[in-house]
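The protein record passed on for reference:
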Amino acid sequence: MEATIVTLLIVGAVLLFLEAILPGAILGILGAGCLVAGVALSYFKYDPQTGTWEFDGQTGTWVLLAVSAGLVVGVIAWF
């Protein structure tokens, strides 16, 4: 699951970067969707002992803060 989250976040960041070069809003929408999905998935973790998904608010919040900080830095760099 961690690999999926990291992949979604990296693909989202790359798509948002490419949106600045290739306008049209399609890549931006897909990139934002990847970032949202990555953050949403980071709030849950699979427990193999019980076979259930558990809420992991601490990790999800750290990922949300990191993505938010990255977006703020990207916007500041853009202007």
